Amino acid sequence: MNHMPRLRIGKFEARVPIIQGGMGVQISLSGLASAVAKEGGIGVIASVGIGQRDNEVITDYVSAHKQAIIDELRKAREKTDGIIGVNIMVALTDFDQHIEGAVEGGADIVFMGAGLPRKLPESIGDINKLHTEFVPIVSSVRAISIIFKYWARKYNYTPPAVVVEGPLAGGHLGFKREQIDQPDYQLENLIPQVIEAIEPFKQSSGRDIAIIAAGGIFSGADIYKFLQSGVQGVQMATRFVATHECDAHIKFKEAHVNCTKDDLIIINSPVCIPGRAIRSPFLDEVEAGNEVPYECPYKCLITCDVVNAPYCIALALLQAKRGNIDEGYAFAGANAWRTKEIVSVKELIDSLQREYSEAVDAAGQ
Ligand SMILES: Cc1cc2nc3c(=O)[nH]c(=O)nc-3n(C[C@H](O)[C@H](O)[C@H](O)COP(=O)(O)O)c2cc1C
Description:
Layout: E1 7-9, E2 12-14, E3 18-20, H1 30-38, E4 42-46, H2 61-79, E5 83-89, H3 95-104, E6 109-113, E7 133-138, H4 141-155, E8 161-165, E9 171-172, H5 187-205, E10 210-214, H6 220-228, E11 233-236, H7 238-241, H8 250-258, E12 264-268, E13 274-278, H9 281-287, H10 313-321, H11 345-362
Parallel strand pairs: 3-11, 4-5, 5-6, 6-7, 7-8, 8-10, 10-11
Antiparallel strand pairs: 1-2, 9-13, 12-13
The structure holds flavin mononucleotide.
Residues 21-24, 27, 46, 48, 87, 89, 113-114, 137, 165, 168-171, 214-217, 235-238, 331-333, 335 line the site of flavin mononucleotide (FMN).
């Protein structure tokens, strides 16, 4: 067996170079994250909408989210001493409190996606002295330059890794609609530019910076292909939906298993960026121009136009997570149609390892 290489991110070293991408709303919580960490990968809890428990009336969303992040980290820690991260969207209105929750809860790594970096809350102190490492998720070389320069100047901090997410990913995408199918923006073509862009920051900081490829990576052969292209790890999300340990309702997982290529569509999310999801009666209604009335319980995303948005994305995603797929929809990556069955995280990682080993043999290495 040709083993996959380990992945080092700052002070943390994962036995397998696989990060489970954070999935909101409440698709990746402590159940999935701890199972992935136990198998040697990096498990990630998604923080968006995490505080909205079933049948609970919330009066203070900000405190509820922060507390839920701390609670999920504790639950994950009870199950494993592997590496646990938290995915926090930069576009959250209560971003500061999510960061505080992750740091106070002892997250190993915070992955920051969906936007350029903002100021971190002063309450967490000097980030160079924290247990927690901070890793940005980007979709362009330009974003890398802005983020790494900003963090060096403001915090004297160089992130130990960067996740590069291409247009085949699930959920919100960091591309304009017309860029999604263009060759220039495909992950394979972004990687060489990213490797080049990261080099000066490695030199100036004297720190290793792992490059992580994300978006559409499905098999062990894909992992081999991307590692050969010069990255140190991969982030995969869609594959982890169809696992027993994934924190979503079984109907959400079945929506992934049963979807066809044609069911995977690009939507205009109410937060004004494109996203990839599985077609559903709810989305058909929205596409037909019908609004889905709602009362905004709490403006969670800065970019949401609450007055004109045709529906509440947080409620729609939460409905899907709870199994009411027809009243919402499931996000999914472009390769979700290849998902054939629900397996355990261990079975999934073992099969990825096997396929990786076969790819090494096939390449004659
Ligand atoms: C159901 C679902 C929910 C997601 N939610 C988030 C999220 O809350 N924050 C984020 O940064 N990325 C989110 N993503 C993107 C993933 O973390 C990941 O980077 C991407 O989907 C990788 O591509 P893959 O799904 O083809 O493996 C989500 C993806 C899916 C499929």
